[in-house]
Amino acid sequence: MMPIEAEWEINRNGYLEIEWKLGPEALEFMQGVGEIQIFNPGDRVVSQHEHGDAMFLIIEGTVDVIRDIGVGQQFLAKLERNRSFGEVALLTNSPRTASVVAETKVRLIKITKENLAHLSAENPRIAMQIYRILAESLAQSLRQTGTIPSQLR
């Protein structure tokens, strides 16, 4: 069984960043789980407040995570290869808490609840690794900061 691991940290803006540790075999497997999407610089990948039911794993390129705060925008994070976003929407089926805009040309894997449900039936051990990473990263965020990560606010 190929390992799917990740590391996470809360950045200075309170944003939980998850870096997936995927070898070539695991990356290829993940591409088969979801749908490949490509965005050009300046394209909006997701918009704050829209309904979300998917997370995205960056295969190549860079995106900016920004939040509208009424009087302007708050920069939350710059995410690159092997980073993900949208995990909270995937887990909670809730509105997106920030917008994500392609800074460079980006190639992403879009993973929906439906994709994970299918994976759970086909390969429950891998699905459990993914769910474990998502749950542990959110729990670690709460332990480290005592506050909810910006994605949940």
Element pattern in H and E: EEHEEEEEEHEEHH
Instruction: Give the low-confidence spans.
Output: none
Strands across the major sheet, in which order?
A: 3-10-5-8
Q: Architecture in CATH? A: Sandwich
Helix content: 25-40%
| pLDDT averaged residue by residue | 88
What amount of the residues lies in strands?
A: 25-35%
Q: What is the H level of CATH, i.e. the homologous superfamily?
A: Jelly Rolls
Integer tally of domains: 1
Overall geometry: globular
Distance between the termini: 36 Å
Q: Which radius of gyration do the C-alpha atoms yield?
A: 15 Å
Question: How many DSSP-defined strands?
Answer: 10
Structural class: alpha+beta
**CATH T-level topology:** Jelly Rolls
Tally of helical segments: 4
